Amino acid sequence: MVLISDILVQGVQMLLVLLLAPLLTGFVRKIKARLVRRKGASVFQPYRDLLRLLRKEVVLADNASWLFRVTPYVTFAAIWVAAALVPTFATGLLFNWTADLIAIVALLGSARFFLALAGMDVGTSFGGIGASREVMIAALAEPAMLLIVFCMALVAGSTQLSTVANFMASSYVGLRVSLGMALIALIMVALAENARIPVDNPATHLELTMVHEAMVLEYSGRHLAMIEFGAFLKLLLYISLIACVFLPWNIAVFGTGPLAYAIGAGAYVVKLAAAGFFLALFETATAKMRVFRIPQFLGAALMLGLLGTLLLFVSRSF
Amino acid sequence: MTSAVAISAVALQMSCVAGLLGTAVLAIALSRSKRSTAVIYGATLAICLVALFGSIRWLLGDAQNASALALPIGLPWLGAHFRLDALASFFLLVVNLGGAAASLYGLGYGHHEEAPQRVLPFFPAFLAGMNLVVLADDAFSYLLCWEFMSLASWALVMAHHRETGNAKAGYVYLVMASFGTLALLLAFGLLAGPTGDYGFAAIRAAQHTPYVATLVLILMLLGAGSKAGLVPLHVWLPLAHPAAPSHVSALMSGVMTKVAIYGFIRIVFDLLGPPAWPASAVILFFGGITAVMGILYAMMEKDLKRLLAYSTIENVGIIFVSLGLALAFQANGMKLLASLAFTAALFHVLNHSFFKSLLFFGAGAVLTSTGERDMEKLGGLIHRMPFTSFAVLVGCVAISALPPFNGFVSEWLIFQAVLQSPDLPQWALKIMVPAVGAMLALAAALAAACFVKAFGISFLGRPRSPAAEAAHEVDRYSLSAMFILASLCLLAGILPGPVIDALSPITLQILGGRMPIQANEPWLSIVPIAESRSSYNGLLVMLFITFSASLAVFVIHRFASHALRRAPAWGCGFSDPTPAAQYSGGSFAQPIRRVFGTLVFHARDHVEMPAPGDIRPARLRIEWHDLVWEGMYAPVAKAVSVSSDRLNRLQFLTIRRYLSLVFATLVTLLLVLAIWS
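Structure tokens for the assembled complex are given below, as produced in the milestone run.
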């Protein structure tokens, strides 16, 4: 009986992230449009886009292999599983311990690996340029991410997100400079990982400036729908991650009952909206940078992570 | 009763070695026969399987004991000692598993060999040599077997000696192997001390002064490090490993580097006694550098087999980092954490032997099918070699440390050990370990990039040469060897708990501690320290991904459009029909070359643009330097060649000058003697 309710709550989370992800992207797009005084499409437009893509036929390049057709499902599944393992409205769900933060990051790495391969499958230059730049960005983002994890684990004594969230929600943690640095670094990594401005522009169709979009240029129809959905989920995942580690207020502890879950879910939606608003504000106010400026941007994230860790060492020893 | 069983265990391994040596002799006798390939590889396969099961049984059964055997050969006052303990049995497992897979692969691949008599006698001898190094229990036998292993592998490297570059590869290998053995010889000399007792039992019992311990550690880093491919002693490895036939490359990269790591563990962890923490800092430093440099070299490479050899260097670096962590924790008496790091190292040894052998087999399959090792001439093989492509894809995912495969588990364990480093009391280590951890993360991400490149350029896209267009699938033996290794990669990835438990006798033997028993954890997950700290469940991750992907496929195929149309790829209105217009390996590596290579390799891109009106094509020339080779080895080689040129003059003197030289030498020596006394 307990097991069934456990599975139920976990299932609710899996569905929740699935349902909220397009809405979040639609919301960000809407705010961005409003900030430049356009009316903008409805916040529900991403759902319509997905449905439209699902109804369209797939145009497959002549020499596309099975890998090209399998990749959309593999990447979608990997990102979905990763998104379902990050605590959203409640901690300590049934399968939260399946993977810690390092494993979640690696799952996203699996998704990226297959997507980069698919970009190279057809043998056009767009796929290649997108894939090669995407792996470069990943190579720069991953060390920074590890140092953020290190800093976080040093404070909370765990890489298990549920434990971290519970610890951060407790009153033991005051304001810490290190955590502030880790937060900024994590935001920078999240921007890079989600192909947002200033690292990449999700709205561009000028081929030479694209990274992520160039990689998936050959996709169409239901395959493209899966990939777009994966991208929506990934944005949601990173915001949930930032929210559960750095803003864990009102997150429900497992087993506290439906009311706590409802409050947790409400708080979660508010956090998503706030994060989406700030993301839109930031993207409107910033310009995209040149590709070879990215090492400096992510290098700064790496240094912030390292500095945060070293500061923790220093503050601990006194 | 136990002793009878124990003796039979080491005797079984030794008879397998004898069988391998016999097979080598048989290969010489059969060298003219047409069936020799099948007979020899069949025999090595059978012997390796027997030895493999022997070592597994020992590791899972009575690994707490040790079984020894003394043979009345070798030095008259010492004899030859061989011993099987937990550590040895694990490395025997790695050696014989690799040997069995390579033999199975050789059953098919060996038929393409033009001069099989150059390979067949040395292949079993090489396997026997590696087995013997692991079993040896005194310094003399150890060095003798080590040299035997080196020479047998050298002969295999020289099997295709007429191909360009192979003679140089063999020469560099020989020089570096001699250098390594010299370092080992000196290390054993120091360990044996003035009493000169070369048995490992005596060395283990002796007390070593810190001075000796430091020297031995440095010598081991030079000796075992040069064999394993530690930067900057790695230069021979990317030359020699690819020069050998592919199944031998797999053995050299996947297994022989592990034998070198065994030597390092045996001497530094087992024989040398309690460690001091500064040693771990040195190992961590070189391990981290090796991991990053190895994979950066691999990223720059366009030869498929050399890329794999460089990636071996990266993995050796990862293993050395975790050994360094184990040493750091052990030096501070943190046995649980030391065994975590040590288990991670051993797990990675096992994993690397799986996927690196698999990838070399795949490269060999590509080589037999197309005759090409140059990635820029491959492409589109996924259509013509579907099974090979699938197996190689598994290997690429596994080596890129991506879940749910095995490479991720061992790297995850290493990261868990890295995350525990704040508990270390030394400030130098506290600051160093996170930095090395970031280097490991960088190496892992670059490895993923490198294998996207390797697989993407060789197997995907359109064929870049007629040879790649005419490729065909390889034989069943080769395929089954690859698929067995690929399934082992998956199995070790989703069921890491039993592997960790099987490694516990070794940590108990070497470090006196062990990780928590993983068999007790629910749902087959692994928990390095405590569940509240971290846990990972490969099986569930695998099941979840399968479940979500199937659900997505089901929903899409139930509700979405089924229409599918084939069309030419989108090329912005102009599709260049020549496959050369595709992205190449060099262009794929360009962003990373520009970010990291400008510093590490002094890489520059030169564009030669003809003047307007000139119809010559524009050219892009990439310039990069191997700074290790140019900065360390080239000057030494030059000095040797210059001084030998100078000494050469002494060969052409007149008899009068020789006589005066002899006289002068005599007088000088007598003078020295007079002043000395």
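The two ends of chain A are 50 Å apart (CA to CA). Chain A touches chain B through 88 residues (CB under 8 Å). Further analysis is deferred to the final report.
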